[in-house]
Amino acid sequence: MDFQSKFALNCQILNADLYRHHRLSVQLIRADQVHGLVSGNKWFKLKYSLLGAIEKNIGQVVSFGGAYSNHIHALAYAANALGLKSVGLIRGQWSEDNQTLQDARSWGMQLISLTREQYRQKHDADFIKNLQAQYPQAMIIPEGGSNNTALKGVAELMGLIEQQATGLDCLVAACGTGGTLAGLIAGARSTQSVLGIPVLKGAGFLNNDIERLLYNAKLNAKCAWQLDLEGHYGGYAKVKTEHLVHMAALEQQHNVMLDPVYTAKMWRRFDELVTQGFFASGSKIALLHSGGLQGRRGFGLEVAGLKNN
Ligand SMILES: Cc1ncc(COP(=O)(O)O)c(C=O)c1O
Fold first, then answer.
1. Are 77 and 50 in contact (CB under 8 A)?
2. Nearest Cα to Cα of residue 226 among 283, 295, 172
3. Are domains 4-37+148-299 and 42-145 of this chain identical in fold?
4. Model-level pTM?
């Protein structure tokens, strides 16, 4: 199955008094529309891992995630569509009602619980070695899919963005593990800048993680980049009512659907930065809609085309 041939990247011009007032041209990169189930950053991150597994005759992939993980959801679907077996190592306990995991299971993913303590070892060399011994025929993909090949796939996404949004000065994207941002940085031109908004509290460590991801993938940053650490609004997956109110206002104003954990926080913080005069007047800016809509169900929100809890 060739996901890539189905992809068309749309750009949505964002009209808002706030942007006009600050003389900014702002667009939303609708990567959420590239595929119904492997949307946003996901196929770009997974593409070379999955195609690499097929090429090397590796029939199984194993990866990690939380009970509402967009990565696990997309991996389960894409692996199944490509004829690969998949195993999801899921953090902590989960409820059988959880629709993200029900979907993953329906696409053939074997789900295994890891205690929070076990899950914390996900990057430890010994832990990975044992896991590989347990699944000798499998490709182990790190949490969020953020391995070397993910950066290559996301750098291609940056190329597609440039084709749609020519003359771009700055790209803004939400950060979890930093893999997406590292790929965007690798694909950006020297005249551009990339701004990452981590959705985790105290995510300064991502500066090093992103440098390390780029170094390990043998990729260089030609562009300027930085992280803004104030866009977590309470921490990872912490969603207060006022955040949902902000999200709903953005959705209504721009006729778009967002997820509360990643894209709504990124956009909310972007608007605050615009208000503070962070961006130079006349700049052309793009916000990356990195998908994640299936995760809305964890907050009791609807998603067209997907079952709710
Ligand atoms: C919708 C969405 N946006 C952004 C991200 C951040 O990606 P990364 O982990 O590569 O930083 C994720 C991570 O899973 C995501 O699901």
1. no
2. 172
3. yes
4. 0.96
Give me the count of residues in the chain.
309
Q: Give 237-294 pLDDT, tens digit per residue.
A: 999 999 999 999 999 999 999 999 999 999 999 999 999 999 999 999 999 999 999 9
Q: In which residue are the tokens 């950066």 written?
A: 151
Q: Does residue 198 sit in helix, strand or coil?
A: strand
Does 3.40.1670.10 match the CATH number of domain 42-145? no
Among the listed residues 84, 73, 8, the one whose alpha carbon sits nearest the alpha carbon of residue 45: 73
Q: Which of 2, 6, 9, 8 is nearest to 286 (CA)?
A: 9
pLDDT digits (tens, 9 = 90+) for 22-59: 999 999 999 999 998 999 999 999 999 999 999 999 99
Q: Which of 28, 38, 39, 41 to mutate to test the pocket of ligand 1 (most atoms within 8 A of CB)?
A: 41
Q: How far apart are CA 216 and CA 123, in angstroms?
A: 14
Topology adopted by domain 4-37+148-299: Rossmann fold (3.40.50)
Coil, strand or helix at 27: strand
Q: Which ligand 1 atom is at minimum distance from the Cα of 199?
A: 6
The finding on whether 262 has its CB within 6 A of some atom of ligand 1 is: yes
Which single residue is written with the structure tokens 């992809």? Answer: 7
Residue 219 contacts residue 179 (beta carbons within 8 Å): no
Q: Spell out the domain ranges in the chain.
A: 4-37+148-299, 42-145
Closest ligand 1 atom to residue 70 Cα is 16
In angstroms, rounded to a whole number, what is the distance separating the alpha carbons of residues 56 and 62? Answer: 15
